[in-house]
Amino acid sequence: MKVSESDLRLEDGRTLHVYDTGGDGPVVVWHHGTPNTGAPPAPLFAAAEALGVRWVSYDRPGYGGSSPLPDRTVASAAADVRPVTDALGVGRFTVLGHSGGGPHALACAALLGDRVLGAATVAGLAPYDAEGLDWYAGMVPSSAASLRAAAEGRAAKEAYEAGATYDPDMFTDADHEALASTWSWFDEVVGPALEGGPDAPITDDLAYVAPWGFDPATIAAPLLLVHGEEDRIAPAAHSRWLAERCPTAELRLRPGAGHISVLEAGAEALEWLVARKG
């Protein structure tokens, strides 16, 4: 699939860097994880072509070619997706988010109900204030420590990141295998995401542990929650919690899958989204 890139100037003076594969098929708006840029997921291109999918996506503020938005919330994604889709002449669409992109996809489903036909998240998070959920339970210690620092505020998070190192234990053996093969694609979006420094991923994490600005239970569009049961970064309990509280949700757990290897279900999620018709 050929991906065109452009810069969209917003009314507030910010710029969003936008990706679009074009075509007149069903539109799936991709929400990237942390820390990634917004290029649509190339490992899913074959499945997308077979389904006629048109990918639309963007670098979240502070990543890649998009201007920073220091105090953004998860809900801010909806305010950015509306002008992106307007500029591309897209009326109704579905949303798909992986990892940290999951909450941002939920924001669009909740706040752009007039536009969103369906939403899917893969390995997503639940709100930090989720009642009855032990939010950190099941996370690898390094991931929990990183997010606990975020919960203490920007200064604490910046101090934590200044001394943080990569922890391979956050990924399962199946994840490492996926990263060495099909999903080596992440090398193309992680490196560029970090070239501008740590501010964008720090802002992401601050948003995850702050009030999101919407209630996922208000989502009226069909919602698919896909999660690996062995996920060490965003434990499956997060999707279980969402499934129990979102009336339109369907939960699909993947035995043996971790945070990356669960993306082998990406084609299945695309098929589900394409079947959502207004």
Describe the structure.
With 278 residues, the protein is an alpha/beta fold. Helices cover 34% and strands 17% of the residues. It has 10 helices and 8 strands. The chain has an 8-stranded mixed β-sheet, with helices on both faces. Strand 1 and strand 2 form a beta hairpin. The chain is globular. The mean pLDDT is 97.
Notable traits:
single chain, alpha/beta, 278 residues, eight-stranded mixed sheet
Order of helices and strands: EEEHEHEHEHHHHHEHEH
The total of beta strands comes to 8
**Would you identify the regions where 5 or more consecutive residues have pLDDT less than 50?**
none
Rg over CA atoms, rounded to whole Å, is 17 Å
Biggest beta sheet summary: 8 strands, mixed
Share of β-strand residues: 15-25%
Helix fraction by DSSP (H/I, runs of at least 4)? 25-40%
Write out the strand line-up for the largest beta sheet, numbering strands in chain order.
1-2-4-3-5-6-7-8
Report the structural category: alpha/beta
The outline comes out as: globular
Summarize model confidence as the mean pLDDT. Answer: 97
Output the number of helix runs.
10
For the record, give the distance between the C-alpha atoms at the N and C termini, rounded to a whole number: 26 Å
